[in-house]
Each structure stands twice: as structure tokens, then as C-alpha cells.
């Protein structure tokens, strides 16, 4: 057998193995015979894949299934707790380190503030925290790897953070740094890409054409097309916050002017609130924050909204108009099956969702928007950690998106 044939053979084995594992995960407990039928594989192929999966601890045999006479088949089930993974989520304000099982459930986590660190200092601090966190894990031989997500332009194949303006990181080879230091396979992915995968895999939105948009400190998007992440050449696709909305607008740190980010991110809303207060406009936000500007956070803004504050409502309407227009562009450009909204400004802000939905309804092409699902992101506060887990599980165990 020449090398190429050997390579093909190995690849086919690996593919069959992930097919079998996926079926066990999604349809288990299941018998070997059912697995062979459902995957259209020969019983011997299934048997050898299962044997390997049992030996490695990903699958175990349980009891027996029902049978109409004859020998009862042994059933197989997925073991999400026999191994674990380590997930790291870097945001512009915190670093979260977690231990998770193979169904993306958080088993333990720590959150640490970034506290104004920038560039190399962020990485130094992260490695220091990771050293301690790893030292606390007793059974590292059962760890399948480390998955890191980070905002900015990230090359997933090289594991390099090319560019993050807020944390001032450029060309940081995070994958290599981690693999050299910890001797463990490491994945690095953009945070929004991670979250859209997690919403697809573990959330309420099992669509192959899915767009996730986050509106919080900044704006971002993750775009899934036919179950593939849209990355672009350098991993920079989906920089939704830097789409131009005003050719002569506010200067942006990306080098352009008039980026969407400068108009509707929380940072933009916050500065509009401060200006309004400074010019004497009455608002509940001032009472709710007791006159302390540092206490004006998204939850205070949303409380003011709930209490009917005029300034908060005006700003929310303005955000909805800008966001609606930008989303109509995405709908018309990508024709997604579902488009979901997450981030601090979206959660607990049903009016924003309603207004954006109405905007899409009025302005997007009817054929594209009529049956499009639009809703709130479903994964809650662990979404980024679940995203990191999704990236690793999809690659390592072939947890395919298609079922
Ligand atoms: Zn920009």
C-alpha cells in the first residue's frame, strides 16, 4: 500500500469513527446494529470503531435494549465525563478559565479582570493564571486539550491573534505559546465564531445558515454558511462593528471613520448618556447611578428603560434604527435561516428586539425575511466558554454540525 492509500484509509477510518461517535451522542443509547444501519456502514467497521471508542473511554456499554425475542443487544452511550477540556475566554474586560466536560458543561471556572493590561502583559497574566489553574487539575492525562477564544482578527489554523485594537495585541502566536508551555493541543478562535458554533450545536438555533450578532462593549458577528464558518483569508470576516455607516463620521481605532461601532456599542451609548446629563437633560439614569458616572452600566440603562425613562428610550430607538439598517444589509447579503442577537444591550431589552424585528420586516427583501427566524441568543452567560468547547469538540472528535 503506498502512502497516499494509507493516508486515505486512515482518513476514512477517522471519518467513520466520528460518524459512529456522533450517532452515539445524539441517538444513544443505541446498539451496534442500529449504528451500522443508520450510518450505512458495515457491522465490522462499526465494531472496530466502537471498540476503539470504548478503549479510549469516549463510549461505554450499558444494560440491554428491548428485543422481540432472541439475544438482546448491548446498548452504547456517550461518556461526556470521562475526559475534560480546558476553555479560556478572553474578553476586553475579563479572562475566564474553565474546566468543561465533553458536552460543553462548565464544571469549574474562574473569572479574572484584565484591569487595563494591554499587549504582551495580557498574555503574561493569562499564562500566570493558567499555570495556577492547571496546577489545580489533578488528572491532566484525561484532558483532551485547551481551547481559547479571543475577540479580534484570529487565524484559527495558525492560532495567531493578528489584531485586537482594545487589548492592543498584534500577531501573538497564542497556540504555539500554549502548546510549548503545556504540551497540550490548543485551539484558538475568534469569540464570535465560537459563539455561533455553540448556538448551532448546543443552543436553540440548529440552523446551517446562521448569523450571530453581539451588541455590548463592541459589536461583532459570527457567520455560519452551510455549516461552515465564514472566516475570510485572515480570519477577519464578520467585523460587523466596522461596517461604514457615515462617510464623514466619528474616527474609529480601525483607521476608518463612521463605523457602526462608534454609534451603537455600549461605549457609544454611555458617552451619549454622559453628554445628556452634562447638558442638564433630566434622566432616571442619574438617580439610579447616584450621580456616579462609573456606576452607569448596561444594567442601569436597562432599568431606566423598564421604568420608561425618556432619554433611555430615545437612545434605545436610535440603536434599534442603526442596528436594524445594518442587519437588513446582512439579511440581503447572506440570506440566513436565522439571525440572533446577543450581548449586554440585547439581553433583558425586549423593546430593542421588537424594534429591530419590525425594522427588518419593513426593509429587508420580502422573500429573504419572511421565513427567517429572528430572536435572542439562547446560551446565556456561559456562551463564550461553550463556544470554545464547540471549536475543540468539532475538530477533535468530529462533533459534526450536520446530523
Ligand atoms: Zn472601525
TrEMBL record:
GO biological process: D-xylose metabolic process
Keyword annotations of the record: Carbohydrate metabolism, Xylose metabolism
Keyword Magnesium: no
Top-level taxonomic group: Bacteria
Stored InterPro entries: ATPase_NBD, ROK, ROK_cs, WH-like_DNA-bd_sf, WH_DNA-bd_sf
Pfam families: HTH_24, ROK
Function noted in UniProt: Transcriptional repressor of xylose-utilizing enzymes.
Family the UniProt entry places it in: Belongs to the ROK (NagC/XylR) family.
Name the record gives this protein: ROK family transcriptional regulator
Taxonomic placement: Bacteria, Bacillati, Bacillota, Bacilli, Bacillales
Amino acid at each position: 500500500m503506498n502512502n497516499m492509500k494509507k493516508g486515505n484509509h486512515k482518513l476514512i477510518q477517522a471519518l467513520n469513527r466520528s460518524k459512529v461517535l456522533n450517532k452515539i451522542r445524539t441517538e444513544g443509547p443505541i446498539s451496534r446494529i442500529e449504528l451500522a444501519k443508520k450510518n450505512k456502514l458495515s457491522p465490522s467497521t462499526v465494531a472496530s470503531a466502537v471498540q476503539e471508542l470504548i478503549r479510549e473511554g469516549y463510549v461505554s456499554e450499558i444494560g440491554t435494549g428491548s428485543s422481540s425475542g432472541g439475544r438482546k443487544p448491548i446498548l452504547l452511550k456517550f461518556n461526556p465525563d470521562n475526559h475534560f477540556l480546558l476553555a479560556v475566554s478572553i474578553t476586553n474586560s475579563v479572562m475566564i478559565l474553565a474546566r468543561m466536560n465533553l458536552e460543553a458543561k462548565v464544571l469549574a471556572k474562574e473569572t479574572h479582570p484584565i484591569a487595563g493590561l494591554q499587549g504582551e502583559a495580557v498574555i503574561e497574566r493569562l499564562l500566570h493564571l493558567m499555570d495556577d489553574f492547571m496546577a489545580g487539575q489533578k488528572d491532566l492525562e484525561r484532558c483532551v486539550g485547551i481551547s481559547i477564544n479571543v475577540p479580534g482578527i484570529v487565524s484559527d489554523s495558525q492560532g495567531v491573534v493578528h489584531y485586537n485594537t482594545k487589548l492592543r495585541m498584534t500577531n501573538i502566536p497564542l497556540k504555539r505559546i500554549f502548546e510549548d508551555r503545556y504540551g497540550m493541543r490548543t485551539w484558538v478562535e475568534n469569540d464570535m465564531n465560537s459563539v455561533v458554533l455553540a448556538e448551532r450545536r448546543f443552543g436553540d438555533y440548529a440552523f446551517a445558515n446562521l448569523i450571530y450578532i453581539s451588541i455590548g462593549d463592541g459589536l461583532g458577528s459570527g457567520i455560519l454558511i452551510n455549516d461552515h464558518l465564514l472566516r475570510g483569508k485572515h480570519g477577519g470576516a464578520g467585523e460587523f462593528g466596522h461596517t461604514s455607516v457615515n462617510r464623514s463620521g466619528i474616527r474609529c481605532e480601525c483607521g476608518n471613520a463612521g463605523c457602526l461601532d462608534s454609534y451603537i456599542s455600549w461605549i457609544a451609548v454611555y458617552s451619549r448618556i454622559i453628554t445628556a446629563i452634562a447638558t442638564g437633560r433630566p434622566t432616571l439614569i442619574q438617580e439610579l447611578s447616584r450621580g456616579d458616572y462609573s456606576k452607569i452600566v448596561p444594567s442601569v440603562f436597562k432599568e431606566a428603560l423598564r421604568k420608561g425613562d425618556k432619554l433611555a428610550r430615545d437612545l434605545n430607538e436610535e440603536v434599534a434604527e442603526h442596528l436594524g439598517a445594518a442587519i437588513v444589509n446582512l439579511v440581503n447579503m447572506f440570506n440566513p435561516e436565522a439571525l440572533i442577537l446577543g450581548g449586554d444591550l440585547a439581553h433583558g431589552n425586549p423593546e430593542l428586539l421588537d424594534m429591530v424585528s419590525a425594522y427588518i420586516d419593513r426593509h429587508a427583501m420580502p422573500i429573504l425575511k419572511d421565513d427567517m427566524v429572528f430572536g435572542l441568543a439562547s446560551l446565556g452567560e456561559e456562551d463564550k466558554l461553550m463556544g470554545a468547547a464547540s471549536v475543540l469538540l468539532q475538530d477533535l472528535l468530529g462533533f459534526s454540525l450536520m446530523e
